[in-house]
Amino acid sequence: MRRGILLYGPPAAGKDTITTALTELDARYVPFLRLKVGTGKTEGYRMGTPEQLAALEARGDVIYRNDRYGNIYVVDRPGLDQAMEGSRAPVVHLGQMAGMEQVTAFFPAHWARVLLWCSRETTARRSPQRGDTDTAARLAAWDATQADLAAHPRVQWELRVDTDATAPREAAQRIDDIVRTTSPRS
């Protein structure tokens, strides 16, 4: 059975850092590069065009789309299929519960759902440290993520990690333990 990890949390909660720690722990973990249509940061994305997005939408291959920071971010079926080749387990970053729901509903796999959290103050501090030029927008997204989480109190998380108090390698090891104990053996 195919498997993957869904990392949910506000901006600067450590999704990139913990994904790096996971890939160092086990080569089967791979970052899922969402399709991005827009401008700004290109690292960590597959950059696309409005025409590519329209073609994916016409084929029904858009699993989840969100518009934020003036860009469009897409989790797509062909991208996930490719990321899962060869028993790899993609690590998908999401900041909206709708994305969590759509990925688990429309892309069959064993998904380990992990909530990464940090304080708003930590986001305010980490955002400029990582090179963001739009920290105010990141804080607005933090607020939206907190409200989104509060609106979905019954979500079942395999793991919750407070990244203010947990080192990235420790978080990665805990996630790996969850994946190994809840996924069917290959």
Automatic annotation (TrEMBL):
tRNA-binding found in the keyword field: no
Entry GO MF terms: kinase activity
SUPFAM superfamilies in the cross-refs: P-loop containing nucleoside triphosphate hydrolases
Biological source species: Streptomyces doebereineriae
Source organism phylogeny: Bacteria, Bacillati, Actinomycetota, Actinomycetes, Kitasatosporales
Region spans: Disordered: 161-186
Keywords, alphabetical: Kinase, Transferase
Pfam family, any one: CPT
Protein name: Guanylate kinase
InterPro entries in UniProt: P-loop_NTPase
Membrane-spanning ranges: none
